[in-house]
Design brief:
The protein is of the alpha/beta class. The protein has two domains: 179 residues, Nucleotidyltransferase, domain 5 (2-Layer Sandwich); 175 residues, ATPase, nucleotide binding domain (Nucleotidyltransferase, domain 5, 2-Layer Sandwich), CATH 3.30.420.40. It has ten helices and twelve strands. A hairpin with a 2-residue loop joins strand 4 and strand 5. Helix 4 packs across helix 10 and helix 6 crosses helix 8. The two termini are 26 Å apart. 5'-O-[(R)-(carboxyoxy)(hydroxy)phosphoryl]adenosine binds next to helix 4, helix 5 and helix 6. The site of 5'-O-[(R)-(carboxyoxy)(hydroxy)phosphoryl]adenosine has 21 residues, from helix 4, helix 5 and helix 6.
């Protein structure tokens, strides 16, 4: 049995099996690299993601109980597929002798979903006597930016500012070095991804809301509806006011009272009105995020890289506007699109840099999945 107090020393290449199940994607990946090498890069050997989007399209959102049951069905086949795609099976059996460590998302996320991934990882760690790395989900999103798609791709430089924009979080995080995080701005209420999802519902656009709004916005006028930019202190955000502002603007456009049921509004909107609302909202959301990032850059003038992370980082308007606004002064990084949403490759990358930073593994008998939004 592994002694948990001992810091693992790896002087050669390690292969990490990573597992992610925090929301509605069941994912496993295997990455390989030498954490002792300077500027060591990890290579992705396999990356399997089974999404529950098709299940939740008909519900218009994630049902936690259904998500957990679906993870339960998928998790072991997904882990097995990750071995197989990495070429690490022998006569159809997973070759555990090739794996040096296991990484898993332990928080934040939906309770039932996290339970499936963490219990699987803990059990596998005990069964196969492997060190276990419990990784914070937001850390993984940030480290998706280190997953090189090409050999010669640049990596972000420290100190950096990361804008983390997901379904549950909106934060600006400063990193002086690997595995060192300081939250310098956060949302006071809704996350930006949540706001995308809720506004998509008002407009009658399908789940998941972010990509639907981005698609509809392509045919819309981003200046058609004037939406407010919240005046929140320092580097903090607020998105609940923007959601209400869109609701009121839709009601006004349709000439209905504010008591009119929001779920009946979509049926009254034309496709063009939906597109115009989507484009106006998207433009405002991007502006709110990048205004704060601009303020953060003024406060931290030594910033060498900007790293945008989380599901909303897939947004084309956000990518283009951030590059246009900051790109000539500071290098701007986004994850490859396949690593922007939830996946296990990013969990493996985060664990790789934990190992490189000398972080000790977690006791699989004591793994903590208590809700925590602060990144560690
Ligand atoms: O990081 P993520 O996959 O899961 C969480 O950790 O929450 O983020 C999901 C969020 C959802 O709110 C989804 O609507 C949003 O990311 N999203 C987008 C886009 N793709 C996903 N938002 C805006 N534009 C997109 N293209
Ligand atoms: Zn996520």
């Amino acid at each position: 049995m592994l002694e948990i107090s001992e810091v693992m020393c790896y002087n050669t290449e390690v292969k990490i099996l990573a597992i992610e199940s925090s929301c509605d994607e069941t994912a496993a990946a295997i990455i390989s690299g030498d954490p002792s090498s300077k500027n060591g890069k990890a290579e992705l050997l396999s990356n399997v993601v089974v999404s529950q989007i098709d299940i939740f399209k008909s519900y218009g959102g994630v049902i936690p109980e259904v998500a957990a049951r679906s993870h339960l069905e998928a998790i072991l086949p997904v882990v097995h597929q990750a071995f197989s795609e990495a070429g690490l099976t022998k006569k159809g059996q997973d070759d555990w002798s090739q794996i040096d460590a296991i990484a898993v998302t332990h928080t934040p996320g939906l309770l039932g979903s996290l339970l499936i991934g963490t219990l699987t990882a803990r059990t596998l760690a005990i069964l196969h006597d492997k060190p276990l790395y419990a990784v914070h989900h937001l850390k993984s999103h940030i480290y998706a930016n280190w997953l090189a798609v090409n050999e010669d791709e640049k990596q972000p430089q420290f100190p950096l500012l990361s804008l983390v924009v997901s379904g549950g979080h909106t934060q600006i995080i400063r990193m002086d070095e690997h595995n060192h995080f300081e939250i310098i701005g956060t949302t006071m209420d809704d996350a930006v991804g949540e706001c995308y999802d809720k506004i998509a519902k008002i407009l009658g656009l399908p789940y998941p809301g972010g990509p639907s709004i981005a698609r509809a916005a392509k045919n819309g006028d981003p200046d058609k509806y004037k939406l407010p930019i919240p005046q929140i202190k320092d580097l903090d955000f607020s998105f609940s006011g923007l959601k209400t502002a869109v609701l009121r603007a839709v009601q006004k456009e349709l000439g209905v009272p504010i008591s009119f049921p929001s779920h009946e509004l979509a049926g009254k909107l034309t496709e063009q009105q939906k597109a115009d609302f989507a484009a106006s909202f998207q433009k405002t959301a991007t502006k709110i995020l990048l205004n704060k990032l601009e303020k953060a850059l003024e406060m931290y003038p030594d910033t060498k890289s900007i790293v945008i992370a989380g599901g909303v980082s897939a947004n084309e308007d956000l990518r283009k506007t951030a590059l246009a606004k900051f790109g000539n002064k500071t290098e701007v990084f986004f994850p490859a699109l396949k690593f922007a949403g939830d996946n296990a490759a990013m969990v493996g990358a985060a664990a790789f840099y934990e190992i490189a930073s000398g972080v000790s593994p977690t006791d699989p008998y004591k793994l903590n999945i208590m809700p925590r939004s602060e990144i560690i």
